[in-house]
Write a structure and sequence with these properties.
This protein is of the alpha+beta class and 237 residues long. It is 38% helix and 21% strand. The longest helix has 31 residues.
């Protein structure tokens, strides 16, 4: 299957306000003074005006597992922990890879703002961080729904740089498979994406998913990406 684009919807400003507030270091809106709250709300409005979301996904048949390698038709994921997870799925058959971006205009606005107000640039960057996560959640639900319609349950998404999947190697593999340059996303030799507010990821479709991520059998308890609440399936999107 060739790569397909998806039209993603921007979240309402009020919906992301609590997350942006947490992103800038406050527990909740109640902890902000009125003038600071107004600044955050303004940054959200400005950011959502600038964001131009784009995305791309591609599915492919799962072929086999090797010692530390998940092999699909045209794409590979080198991760021992995900190999362990795959062994716990019933009839894994599909791999889906995708990339989501907020667009280059937001990054340019943040860089431009740094020369005028570091504080405003910081707020705008926080908005971008929250928005890209929301857009990627939306993309994950979309592809999980497509696979669910075909009778598959899905794992959680898994990105290069997470767990034991090497960032540079993983990005090179996904870029070769997806060609996200077609939606304006590039990568550096170290595996960082441009625009920075972009996320690439992979998930697996199986006939039964009892665990959605390798977190339950990983000993790294302080991992910032730990997904305790996503340990168990099923998920159809």
């Amino acid at each position: 299957m060739k790569s397909e684009r998806v039209d993603l919807s921007l979240p309402p400003p009020a919906d992301i306000l609590p997350d942006v507030i947490r992103q800038v270091g406050y527990p909740s809106p109640d902890d902000l003074k009125e003038d600071m709250l107004g600044e955050v709300e303004r940054a959200i409005r400005d950011g959502l005006e600038i964001v131009r979301p784009d995305s791309l996904y591609r599915t492919t048949p799962f072929l086999r597992l090797e010692k530390d390698l998940l092999v699909g038709e045209g794409v590979e994921v080198r991760s021992q922990r995900w190999v362990h997870l795959m062994k716990r799925l019933r009839d894994p058959e599909v791999i889906c890879c995708f990339v989501v971006t907020t667009g280059l205009a937001l990054e340019e606005a943040i860089n431009d703002m740094q020369g005028k107000s570091l504080f405003d640039a910081y707020l705008l960057d926080a908005v971008g961080s929250v928005v890209i996560e929301r857009l990627t959640d939306q993309m994950e639900r979309h592809v999980s729904g497509l696979l669910g319609a075909e009778g598959y349950q899905t794992t959680a998404r898994f990105s290069p740089g997470y767990c034991d999947w090497d960032l540079s190697e993983g990005q090179e593999e996904l870029f070769r498979f997806l060609s996200p340059e077609s939606v304006g996303v590039k990568r550096t030799s170290a595996g960082m994406m441009i625009p920075q507010k972009s996320i690439s990821a992979t998930l697996v479709g199986a006939r039964e998913v009892s665990l959605r991520s390798p977190c339950p059998f990983c000993s790294k308890g302080d991992c910032p990406y730990r997904r305790e609440r996503e340990e168990r399936g099923p998920s159809h999107g």
